[in-house]
Amino acid sequence: MPNDTDLIENFINDLDIELSIRKKDLYLIKECLDSIKNISNKFTMIRNTVPSLYAHYEGFLKYSFQKLVETIKLMNINNKDINRNFLILCLLTNLEDHIVNQKSKSKVLISNFERIYKNNDNILNVTKIDKYILNHDTLEQTCKILGINLDKILIGKEIYEQFPKEQLGILYARRNEIAHGDISSSNQFSISKQKDITSGQVEFAYSNWTENYKCVLESLDLIKNMFVDYLINEHYLNLL
Fold it and tell me: Where is the RiboL-PSP-HEPN domain (predicted)?
């Protein structure tokens, strides 16, 4: 059985491998865009790769979070020592979606609490983390559960950076419009039915795409840093 130091090293290595794969794919997407000369083709590719930018952000966020919980689970920390907020994750992932009324929810929560907390030494043994919904909408609440401050992520010795929540929120909204095929006329990636695509329109769209691209690259590194810091500084333990 690996010790906690080995588990943390394995966690960092897994994140580094995943991060490298995603960054390489992002670089290739940008290279492909930069090589396109025809403005209509370039505009189409700019618009159609916006969902890919967001997918790498959310995909790495989910991967890192699930690896984090998996690593803490392997540490086999008992309930009195683990951060009690993990109980929230456990209860959320054990509550069935079809239960809608208050009485039924109360019964299930009480039953789960007895089974999970009182009759089980490790909360994470029965946490169904694959059922936990994590995307940009639930990021802030998830970090509050863990006790992570998104406004102050450690990136070096006493050097902190703020997570780009607002910029990623803009990307999230753009991605939703494009992915759902409902692009508003005010969206810079929309196509006018009356006019041809102009070089100015392409330049403006590419400028916005580049901002999103840089933001995603930055967010990937910050996601890694905040979860690694979480493990190294043992924020998963109950400090009360």
Answer: 23-197
- Which pLDDT value is given to residue 98? 47
CA 185 from centroid of its chain's CA atoms: 29
Share of the chain above pLDDT 70, in %: 85
What is the pLDDT averaged over residues 54-78? 94
State whether residue 195 is helix, strand or coil: coil
CA distances from 39 to 28, 168, 201 (A): 19, 26, 9
Cα–Cα distance for residue pair 89/69, rounded to 1 Å: 10
Phi-psi region of 234 (alpha: psi -120 to 50; beta: other; left: phi over 0): left
Does residue 121 surpass a pLDDT of 80?
Answer: no
* Res 126: pLDDT: 74
Structural tokens at position 161: 């950076």
Query: CB neighbours of 169 closer than 8 A, spacing ≥ 6?
Result: 136
Residue type present at position 221: D
In the chain the beta strands, taken as DSSP E runs, fall at 153-156, 159-161
Q: What is the DSSP code (8-state) at residue 135?
A: S
Measured CA to CA in angstroms, residue 165 lies from 88, 149, 186, 227 at distances of 23, 12, 22, 16
DSSP reduced 3-state for 146: helix
CB 223 within 8 A of CB 168: no
- Asked if residues 130 and 63 have their Cβ atoms less than 8 Å apart, the reply is no
pLDDT of 127 higher than 50: yes
Residue 57: count other Cβ atoms within 10 Å of its Cβ.
27
